[in-house]
Design goal:
Helix content: 10-25%
Shape: globular
CATH class of the largest domain: Mainly Beta
Number of helices: 4
Radius of gyration: 26 Å
CATH topology of the largest domain: Jelly Rolls
CATH superfamily of the largest domain: Exo-inulinase, domain 1
Largest sheet: 8 strands, antiparallel
Distance between the termini: 48 Å
Number of strands: 35
Number of domains: 3
Length: 448
Amino acid sequence: MRGSSGSRIVVLTLCGFLVVLLLLCINQFVLQGLIMPIRVIGGSMAERFYGPHYAVCCNDCRFTFAIDATTIPKPRFVDCPNCGSHQPHNPLQPVVAGDRLLIDCMSFQLRDPDRWETILFQSIDPALDHCLKRVVGLPDETLAVASGDIWVNGKRLKKDFATADAMAITVHDARFAAQHAGIAQRWRPKHQASQWQRMPQSTCGFKHVPRPPSEDQTALVDWIVYDHVDLHRGQYRVVDRVTDNYAYNQTLSRKLYKTDDLLLAAKIQWHGKGRLFFELGSLRLELDCGQATGKLREAGQGLAEFFWPARQAGSVIRVEVASVDQQFFFVINKEVIFSCDLEVARIDRAVHAADEALGDNHTRSDRLLAIGAQSLHATIEHPLVRRDVYYTPEVRGIVNRRTGEYHLAADEFFVLGDNSPISLDSRQNTDAAIVRRGELLGRVWRWR
């Protein structure tokens, strides 16, 4: 019996040793970060990956956001990116550790990184064992960064909607409404006589009940519009542009750039056979709920027509419209219903009448973002405004900036950070800023 018990102990000890050895091998060669945590230590990939940061909940609208905790001096005041509330910040607030990462060490042994994939690599300048960035340029391509976008082989690089959705940065989330009387609501009916009425049971919701039809007058488009606010130290000013501001970079003073790459989403329900409208700058999407047809216009001229599943009348659906990288997307419940390359459509629109004008029933909203209804019962809830990453020409800490085009060799990758104003990446005009295949360490997942 004693021999049997001793043998069992030996077997269990050996099994335990083998399990530990297996885990160590997996952690070292297959999936790093399982045992020894690997954490983000900088802010170059915010808002996707956070380094050490403060988690702030706005005292006014209760919107939660992160601010960089590695900057000196520490911020004494912070501005809520959602409502603009200027409030004191306690520098002794506990710091939240950077995001914990899992590293897939095997994939890049079998293949190259895909475009837009987040990778970990060994950096030479600055000298870091682990550096986190996003791949934008692949071997043998010619890259340039201009006008906030990436250009590959002389053409603007265009994201698909899934990538744009994953990288989008929140500009305003209407679910978090400011309680302070001095802060106006961003969304409102355009006219006092509008048939859009706020829904009292909703944080930010509107209900549209059309007027009875008149035989001698065609119904006008009735709009709810978005007033974007320029925020600075508690001062509020309605402007007709969205800039590349980052809540994360509270202490960074820099030039802000206007961006037209916007995404608008909302929960929508409708009844009837009227029309729904969405406007993003000069672009307008018209949805005929009776005929199940859609039309995309720019500055009054038709760009494209399509069919869409209007049979969803009566159901609450999430509708998203986006203008990103000179593309337009119309999305229902995360399914892309219609997309259009705007640069191609502008060339092809010669088939439309050049003097095509908007009639009275197609009156524009004259706002940056708007949602409209015509002869339609509709409810709109929780509109969400986001923007795409704008790649800035200036970067804090980079003196010798790369200008013009760069041709990648057969083993080179061009990488950028999502927090463009502070990311030390391939925009540096040095050979060390380009990632070589031998420097790749693996794919990255966030494991908070």
